[in-house]
């Protein structure tokens, strides 16, 4: 019988699907790796399992301990799944730009959620980094995975995401494109694909305009889960061959097109990564095979990206949801 022992055993082995409608004629093949099909709904399930495994092994996380982490939601869900399986408590710290739907998901899995202001620098005592550090000091048996510096994060992508892409493309992948948040995905997956292909696979990082990876100062942008205002240790800047910056407006417009034209209801960082992947596939031509990683699903963004009023309030709205024409109205 094919019955998994636990939902955590279903993490990974996500499929690749060809993008058909958003691609331009004459471009290379663009294949999306659909990470929302992980049981917790994102690529972060992968790092959660490996970070907890490593902490149990090193003794940093003891039976009955509490996992404390600053997370924009997805890492929290992954950690909450593993915590349920193994009997840990979870306290997550989120910036206030994270959609309320997403925070409620964490609570639904049984975690406690602490909300902090987005518009303060990382060293500020109210920043979500500072607050989580304080909670770790105050809670007995607390362990902070710290996805920004934990080597088990990139390692999980080196051991799973990279080999899956190589296997599922029969080693024909030419480019790997992914958004950069902690940098774990691009670092681990990119390193594996470069090693296995003797450097032939080119790695493209994607960053919201304004973030440090593409030379910005860390000014606010609205795409969630990607971009930073500092350089995390999980990111190895020698891995990407190139970084492409994408605006919030283009990211969100593409996110809506992916739902409407490709049947992929995904998050804003997915639209952002696809904008860059399409650029690469167009530039590299029909012989390229561009794999783009789509980190999460779109259900957590219904009140933002998939809400016309919210989109209009930022001047992002190009095609209303109830428009029956594929042509933009403005
Ligand atoms: N997109 C979303 C929605 C995310 O939550 C994350 C993780 N912060 C990323 C992209 C980026 O992945 P990574 O942290 O591995 O760079």
Listed once per kind, the bound small molecules are: 4'-deoxy-4'-aminopyridoxal-5'-phosphate
Strand content: 15-25%
Strand order across the largest sheet: 1-2-10-7-8-9
**Total number of helices:** 9
Q: Low-confidence segments, ≥5 residues, pLDDT <50?
A: none
Mean pLDDT level: 93
Question: Helical percent range?
Answer: 25-40%
How many E-type strands?
A: 10
Biggest sheet layout: 6 strands, mixed
- Could you tell me the radius of gyration in angstroms? 19 Å
Structure description:
- Helix content is 35%, strand content 15%.
- By secondary structure, it is of the alpha/beta class.
- It has a 6-stranded mixed beta sheet. The chain has a 4-stranded parallel beta sheet with strand order 5-4-3-6, with helices on both faces.
- Strand 7 (175-179), helix 6 (184-196) and strand 8 (202-208) form a beta-alpha-beta unit.
- The model has no long low-confidence stretch (mean pLDDT 93).
- The site of 4'-deoxy-4'-aminopyridoxal-5'-phosphate has 18 residues, from helix 6.
- Its cofactor is pyridoxal 5'-phosphate.
- Keywords: CBS domain, Lyase, Pyridoxal phosphate.
- GO terms for molecular function: cystathionine beta-synthase activity.
Topology (elements, then pairings):
Blueprint: E1 16-18, E2 29-34, H1 44-58, E3 66-70, H2 74-86, E4 89-95, H3 100-108, E5 112-116, H4 128-138, E6 142-143, H5 152-168, E7 175-179, H6 184-196, E8 202-208, E9 242-246, H7 248-262, H8 268-284, E10 289-294, H9 308-313
Parallel strand pairs: 2-10, 3-4, 3-6, 4-5, 7-8, 7-10, 8-9
Antiparallel strand pairs: 1-2
Helix pairs in contact: 1-2, 1-5, 5-6, 7-8
The chain binds 4'-deoxy-4'-aminopyridoxal-5'-phosphate.
